[in-house]
# Entry
Amino acid sequence: MNIGIIGAGQVAQAFARKAIGAGHTVVLSSRRGPDKLAALVDDLGPLANAVTPEDAVENPMVLLAVPWPGVDAALGSLPTWHGQILIDATNGFEDGGLVDFGDGSSSEMVASLTPGARVVKAMNSLFMTNFELDPTSGDFRRVMFVSGDDSAAKTEVADLFESFGFAPIDLGTLRQGGRIQAVGAPLAGHDFFLPWPAPRSFPAFNGER
# Structure
């Protein structure tokens, strides 16, 4: 799979290494331009390339990996989305505190800025030091939570993280699941493992019948 990445910091690089390790190709982008990423893509190897953000979002799956204060600027100048999956790895954290989204969630805000994209919340609840580790431990796999309003998009993202070696768990919608896994919420920062193979959803936990 070809995956675009908006951002080139720690989260973007950690994701790129996992994706490349699973045989996917990645294109990283930065507001500074592709030339500034030459050393990074050389280090990542032949499955990585550097492009403009406009080119990155033309891939069928795109990772948003920028600090929250940069989200508006990163998304504001991009072309119209036309059904690409956008993995939102951001956390609503700026100026030393949490952003108040009222009854909504940060990923719903991202979705409002990217009409036409199919947004899936993922990757934000793990510390990168844990994400970068081997996600398997004997018969157990590290959990990766996913949330979204498009079931097919969630399945594709879950499949992707399963290809990395994680145990994907569906938390429901962007509002419901996104709030549970967001920074400051009950699941944020915890490092969970499940015996593998594991189900992808737990209906009672998700409020389903």
About this structure: The chain has eight helices and twelve strands.
